[in-house]
Amino acid sequence: MTYFDQATETLPRDRLAALQLAKLQAMMAELWGRNRFYTNKWQAAGVAPDGIRSLADLARLPMTKKSELMDDQAANGPFGTNLTYPIEQYVRLHQTSGTTGVPLKVLDTADSWDWWGRCWAHVLAGSGVTASDRVFLAFAFGPFIGFWAALEGARKLGAVMIPGGGRDSAQRLELMRDTGANVLCCTPTYALRLAEVAREIGFDMSSLAMKSTVHAGEPGANIPATKHRIEGAWSAKCFDHAGASEIGAHSFECEVQPGGTHVIESEFIVEVIDRETLEAVAPGQRGELVITNLGRWGFPLVRYRTGDLVQTNLAPCDCGRSFLRFEGGILGRADDMVTVRGVNVFPAGVENIIRKFTEVDEFRIRVTRVRHMDEMDIEVELCDGADAGVVHSIAEKLDSMLAFRPRVHHVGRNVLPRFEMKAKRFHVNREL
Ligand SMILES: [Zn+2]
Q1: Pick from 55, 221, 222, 403: CA 20 to 30 A from residue 188's CA?
Q2: Averages of pLDDT over each 10 residues, the chain, 432 residues
Q3: Strand, coil or helix: 9
């Protein structure tokens, strides 16, 4: 078993909690009076750092929503007030991918950036990466934080990092072969896209030395049918990981792959809440992930509402880590749930059914509201030579699994968009 920091990762849970509390208290003391955003928030809530004496006291602190960070940056441009130090101390500026509107800028000091690297070292070591590996990053290296921090993580492990920016898919495949890359980091969507390109250009995937693929940026590696498909295409073990520009890289799948991702609890505190009452749900129940990062003091987040749905599991893992797990990884975005004919559906649930059909290369889901009723249309693009009759089988399968029958349409080759980073396959139009 490979670890980044075995002593911390296997701490008994009471000592892990003590470590979290000590880090939280130290961070709050540092932020108090320096970080305007949190000092104002905590003063308004009538809580000071010395009022936090146990992890249970965390619930006394107000939560943070993304809209507050956006509003703050709009009002106090360009960087907002969630900066603990003078701007001279910052060394990195990234921004969110902006899939849901104006991008949020996130800044890191040298220490905060080092913390990102530590978190990514946990992620990569979790998947078995060591100093003897060559890690290929199929990523454009733009302002999106994406896999930038993975570079730092690999450096800490001593692995060779091969940046794959400024290349098209075919060139990336060649570069992987030439360099003997044996670990691939990219979005799950792009792992499948690379395999599709390989098929189109006659590139022999078995000429690669790939042993594992590590995925971030969107769900997929936690959707069983998608994971299975990636593993088949790459003849490699596929690992899930989750994080976000504003929070950090917070969870990863270990080599045991117990059906979920471990949270790096030495660097994050996790709460799971009911979205209506905002109270903690019972252990093991599904709810919204609220997360506090403990080492990004330059741009901290305390009790941040992620909008992600998770379910925690404290059962011991055979990898030896005491870090809790998200059962099934991130289960979906709360905002992405749609109700079609009384059935609550998440895009990941639909994807898991569609991806089981090996004839499907790409798909798109459209939800339209007509006279207060949501309707679902699914467009599928089939591989060359596939029997178009499979479209009927997909509709049957969706009907039996979801208890309603979406309309499934067969579209021509290369009609649907392809993606190199986060895919946009799910569209909701409720304006009617
Ligand atoms: Zn494990």
Answers
A1: 403
A2: 97 98 98 98 97 96 96 96 98 84 93 98 98 96 90 96 95 98 96 95 97 92 95 98 96 96 98 96 95 98 97 96 96 86 88 93 90 87 92 94 91 91 85 53
A3: helix
Interval between CA 275 and ligand 1 midpoint (Å): 28
CA of 424 relative to ligand 1 center, distance in Å: 31
Sequence-distant contacts of 96-103: CB under 8 A, at least 24 apart = 96/144, 96/145, 96/244, 96/245, 96/246, 97/144, 97/245, 97/421, 97/422, 99/422, 99/424, 101/70, 102/70, 102/74, 103/143
Q: Could you give the C-alpha distances from 325 to 207, 243, 317, in angstroms and in order?
A: 35, 14, 9
Indicate the pairing of strand 286-293 with strand 304-313.
antiparallel
Locate tokens 């990523």: which residue? 139
Contact 309, 334 (CB under 8 A): yes
Pairing mode, if any, of strands 237-244 and 248-252? antiparallel
Task: Give this prediction's pTM.
Answer: 0.93
Q: Give the separation between CA 33 and CA 62, rounded to whole angstroms.
A: 17
DSSP secondary structure of 205-256: GGGS---EEEE-SSS-TTSHHHHHHHHHHHTSEEEEEEEETTTEEEEE--TT
Query: Residues in the chain, how many?
Result: 432
How close is the Cα of 12 to the center of ligand 1, in Å? 14
**CB-based contact 376:407 (threshold 8 Å):** yes
With beta carbons less than 8 A apart as the criterion, state whether 137 and 164 touch: yes
